[in-house]
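Pasting two entries for a bug report.
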Amino acid sequence: MDKQDLRLELKAIDTSSLVDKVEMRLIEVFLYKELKPGDSIPKETELASIMGVSRTVIRESLNRLKTMGLIESKKHKGTIIKSPDLSVILGKSLIPRILDNKTLMDVFEMRLALEVGMADFIFARKTDRDIQELEEIVEIEPDHSDNILFDVDHELKFHGKLYQMTGNNTLEDFQNLLLPAFQYVYNIGLLKSSNQRKRYKSHKELVTLLKKGTPDEFREGMRRHLENHFVRILSNNDNQAAKA
């Protein structure tokens, strides 16, 4: 047998633990059986017997699935499938101080993409009361911003209200996780200030677009409102490319 044939015969050694294997197998079975939230799964003793492993392995595997939000224990029902709360799962790991710079920037960019892209949902679901609340938020803000960072309190209140207006609970929860990371990027100086000076859309101007404009106009206005962020990101990218 030559070396090439030998390479074909060799396979990677499976170094995953029993717990890893049981966890993945359980997920595969959940998907194959098309289990839905509320459906029960066998008890620990049954799973151990069926899968040929100890109850300790089964228990640790189930604990992992509970941490992931895929299952939960219910009185008189045992362990059942549940719909995971994505914000809770992300909240356990989206901690700005322990994320590396690349991940922080990815999160920063993700929030920008979400806010530019949610105009249609906001327009479809906005109410007069929503507009009134936005007007109250922006009443004490400056008319416009020239290449400056918006006050963090204004940002939290105004953009938080916009996320709420989408009517998407997951999106609203998600922004509560993103905003701390967004601010942390600035606090640690990850984004450098741009030398360019432009007039950006203010919160007040965005409210006017919500009252009198179209989804497309609002989307463009939001893009211009966030222009200082985009300029800083793209400027950083250009500088890194020049150094490479």
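Entry 2 (this is the one that rendered wrong in the viewer):
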Amino acid sequence: MELKQFKNIINSWYLAHRRDLPWRKTFDPYSILVSEIMLQQTQVSRVLNFYDKFLDRYPTFSSLSIADNKTLYGLWNGLGYWKRALNLRKTAEIIQVKYEGVFPNDIDTLKTLPGVGEYTSAALKCFIYNYPVAFVETNIRKVIKHFFFSETDNVSDKEIHKIADLVLDKDNPREWNYALMDYGSSEFRLKKVTQKAKKESFIFSNRYYRGEIIRFITQKGEVSIDDINSLLVEKSGIEINSSRINSILESLINDELIIYKNDRYYI
């Protein structure tokens, strides 16, 4: 497909179908960072239920940097991937202490922030500063594969990135990348059966139990291993192998999501 034709298709579609999302109405680094971390492996529809509430409670880097775990986890409850909440707070601390409240604008520096990788650093650079940088994420990948690699089974992200960079609107990269993401999200939705299967595979996974344990400790304040055993039996209906429980608890401790002290678990 010719590049001009491709751009016309995307831009025409975007004019009629652009998503009205709160983080697109600002260039505030903090607000956009919160949205990008929340959106990691999480659907937009779910993030919309948490975004405004989070910003109401923690509107700035300064306020988030001193957040307590109980309140932070309470606001994050239901979003999953709990370590992202800690990464956000750690980033807020770094911005306050190391960068004196000024958010970095260099991609290599952004990559050093907790939870910020190749995609997120480029997205932050683009969405905060309207900087012309191409990147690859789920929806952009779908769009480029459909229009430029429709007859190819295995396409690397490196090849997709080359096309993304080639078609990038350097005059307004922020809106262009939003357009690609919206088009991919709307026009190439996963079938419901796929979503259902994904949900069923999540139930009783280690990630499912991690979330249940965090919610339980947040509610109780402190718990014993017997309390946790009882909780997981209640949730699953069966006895869970003790080595598996210990492995899950160890992962939570290593991720700094919970604390173990004097035979008790805390947040």
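Dev reply: Rendering is fixed now. As a check, the viewer should reflect this: The first helix runs from residue 3 to 17.
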